[in-house]
Amino acid sequence: MRLFLALVPPPRLRERLGELADAAHAQCGGRRMPDETLHVTLAFLGEVTEKQATELVDGVQGLAVEPDEWHLDRWGHFRQPGIVWVGGPSPALAALHARLWSTLEAQGLGSRPARFIPHVTLLRRADSLDLAPLPRTELSWAYNQVTLIHSIRDARGARYRILAASPGEHEA
Ligand code: 2AM
Asked: Domain 2-48+69-142 - what CATH class?
């Protein structure tokens, strides 16, 4: 099964991100990510075995996440494959990313990426990557919980199923 670790936005922030996705879609076209799939990926694990998935569930349920706040104050893109995102640098998220990957590598799981650009993907296969006309973004994301997600791919894209979450509560 194909798994990843992510932060999942609380409902009100999800709505705000959805509004940004609408604005980006009106400007850039492409495929808008459905609201229910919006997240920031902390670690993409790819295909893992059932046994590894069980170990990951246990690990995430015992994970202590220092509460912090992430400021999403910029638009960005990845030229291939036409991804448009919102995000911004965060030493706290970079530290969480590094800590997660140290644990995952010790378990022989996944492959640590060369760099980490904290972002929420809003569009894929955008027709235009001219982001200059987009409205300013000033979102704040208070987080305290990491979620383990199963990505189930079908003809329409991917559906996400939450397998486990670290201790902590979502805000409204
Ligand atoms: P994204 O964070 O830029 O959107 C589930 O597929 C999530 O893991 C997606 O959000 C996606 O990117 C990320 N992802 C998918 N395939 C990946 C890969 N091969 N390497 C790194 N991240 C990947």
From this structure: alpha beta
CA of 48 to the centre of ligand 1 (A): 15
Domain boundaries, the chain: 2-48+69-142
Question: What confidence tens digit (pLDDT) does each residue in 26-36 have?
Answer: 999 999 999 99
The rounded Cα 67 to chain-centroid distance in angstroms is 17
φ and ψ of 31, to 5 deg: -105, 115
Residue 71 phi/psi, 5-degree rounding, is -100, 120
Q: Ligand 1: which atom is nearest the Cα of residue 124?
A: 4
Tell me the C-alpha distance between 102 and 98, whole Å. 6
Contact 63, 165 (CB under 8 A): no
pTM tops 0.90, yes or no? yes
Tokens of 32: 């808008």
